Batch of 2 targets.
Target 1
Amino acid sequence: MSRPGRHRFEVPPTAGLPLRLADLAWPRGAADADLGAALAQFIGVEAVQIECSGTAALTVALTALQRLAPERTEVVVPAYTCPLVALAVARCGLQLRLCDLMPEALDLDTGHLARLCHARTLAVMPTHLGGRVVDVTGPQACARAVGAWTIEDAAQALGARTGAGAAAVSVGTRADIGFFSLAAGKGLSIFEGGALLVRDAALREACRAASAKVAPRHIGWELRRSAELLGYALFYRRGGLGLVYGRPLRQALRRGDLVAAAGDDFARPYPLHRPGRWRQAVGVKALARLPDFLAEGNTRAAQRRVRLAGIPGLQVLTDSVAVPGADGTWPVLMVLMPTAAQRDAALQALWGAGLGVSLPFVQSLPDYPQYADVVPSAAPQTLPNARSLASRVLAVSNSPWLEDERFEEILRVLAAR
Ligand SMILES: *Cc1c(COP(=O)(O)O)cnc(C)c1O
């Protein structure tokens, strides 16, 4: 029997918006290259500050907050999140504190969070992982009780909204600060980029000042990112991903390097610089197609969620039950298997098969040996929910290039575990 997925087009691990060649045209006027203004309109806020990555946006935000409250030195994040968050906190000279999640959910465990928050807490970071809307109100109450700020990590959730009808607002707008990633494969992409939203006008000014200081122009980095964006436009298409994504993925899996396979092997130090006009103009043009792309993804996910959840024992992670009117985006469908052994068996069959099945992150933050210098250690029995989720979750791509018959193949493998 042939292995699933062989000799067909490689499906990307998330539903990134493909670029068109017309997106690559040089901007004619200032408005063509003002990605901040275009995103502010899309998100529904006054202003959006464009940074060179989501991590850079977080770095800028933390730098600004630190200046306002130098006695506050701790940042509380979910124990299962992107290791770049830990790198940003460390780069600012701050201490990371890990909060557990609610059982089989992505919401911060507010009981645990309340115990972690105190007079030295600078910020708390509810995280809308994989497009799922999590509760911000509860974490915000914990933060406010000790005078700390709340930062929504919406890196993977551009376009996610909460609230009904005309009252609907974007994620990232309810806390003091929110940020989105514009990295490759995270929805809208300028290869690497970030969008920072700041609610209060004075704090927004402080973030602008911090950005001018920590993220100066850098022609070398901008040239490199421009070349990478060109490569992304050329290869992020049906039939183009085998070479640039599939091959290195299978090489990493053969070496047993799961961290590299999941793309969790981040280069240090990450760059901090100003994104240039051309890349912003590419983002402005692509953004015009994002609403339709997200809506199609939503429809596809709604059908596929039902199929996945129909397999006994499987759960699909949904938007938080604590958020009324939550309407997340679906870059992936995050599936929880009953046991870690079943998850691992499913991954063995599917990761590397070209079907777009992967891991959001390989493990919870304290369990990466390579980030032990920036993450506090955690005893084995601690952070039980985040660790259980990390060991039982897998991500099924919601890319339009995963056709129905190949999705059925994934279902068959998952049902057989
Ligand atoms: C990707 C990601 C980040 C960092 O964004 P970059 O643009 O890649 O720097 C932060 N948080 C989460 C949850 C992410 O997935």
Note: The two ends are 18 Å apart (CA to CA).
Target 2
Amino acid sequence: MKLSVPDYVWALDPYEPGKPMEEVEREYGIKDPVKLASNENPLGPSPRAAEAIKRAIGNLNRYPDGGGFELLNAIAKKLDVRPENILLGNGSDEIIGMLAHTMLGEGDEAILPDPSFLMYDIVVKSVGAKPVYVPLKNHGISLGGFKEKITEKTRMIFINNPNNPTGTIVSKGEFEEFLNAVPEDVVIVIDEAYIEFVRDKSCLNGLDFLDIDRPIVILRTFSKIYGLAGLRIGYGIMPEAVTEMLNRIRMPFNASSLAQVGALAALDDDAFFKKTIKLVHEELDYLYGELDEMGVTYFPTQTNFFLIDVKRDANAFFEEMLQQGIIVRSMVSYGFPEYIRVNMGTHEENMKFIEALKKVF
Ligand SMILES: *Cc1c(COP(=O)(O)O)cnc(C)c1O
């Protein structure tokens, strides 16, 4: 077939998500595999969200509120910002895409940590812009390294705080110093998908920089702490001038009605929020303890997932864990050929994980 596609689209590799449970059941005949591969919430969805969604199903014949009025206002109130500062997305992934489509074009450069969340790289390339990679330093994002890569072509900078997949944070002090070195019109995206799990008090909170007159965009999601990854809802917090631009290219109903209703209810679900944090912190400590005992090397984390050094090909290790009914994530495509990433499951799931890990090791 004749197909005319820009070279930079030809060159893209599609995003590879964690292996879905259904696929493992189908391909390996394993019943009820334990999935620890996509940093999801093992406790299920926020019960309040689930209830609200059930109640709202009767309205599915109607289009959603394209302006997301109630949810925008609720988020604004919770974060003490104005609704005009918030943009809803079909997951925060969509907002990452919207940022690239609105602000980047051919010839522009975007600076990214490497390795980090693979979507930054994909969206930057998808508009013909050039990703400029900055290697991690001691597994963390090196803003000093970012500084050295700034050129006249730099239009956007991605900071993943905490960083997926290494679980490290950027401190507020580091960021303040960095900000002075960034030209004022460069968009700084701070992806805070896991900020709720952070225990280190020195961690940067992007919201502290919302009222300075700079294009800083903070990304948050309902996919992780609220357990709503399947619902697809996230949001960005940014100066009004930036929401105005993104709203020009936003699809009118990008946040579905059930997503809006579910997210609204989840925001109020303090009990679930706290329960999730407690589980993640307790289970991290449990897994650290087990791994220490086994003499296994890992990266301590500020998130709900961490990296384990398996000291051999991570793809093969992943396959062997799969045979044991455990889905982890091989870090080969992230540039850590001998690491797997695993997120916190329930205690029972984590015990199964350790059991399988012992066998495979
Ligand atoms: C999970 C994750 C997201 C959230 O994606 P959604 O599209 O909101 O589900 C964003 N950034 C990073 C780094 C993530 O790991």
Note: The chain has two domains: 18-45+271-360, 47-267.
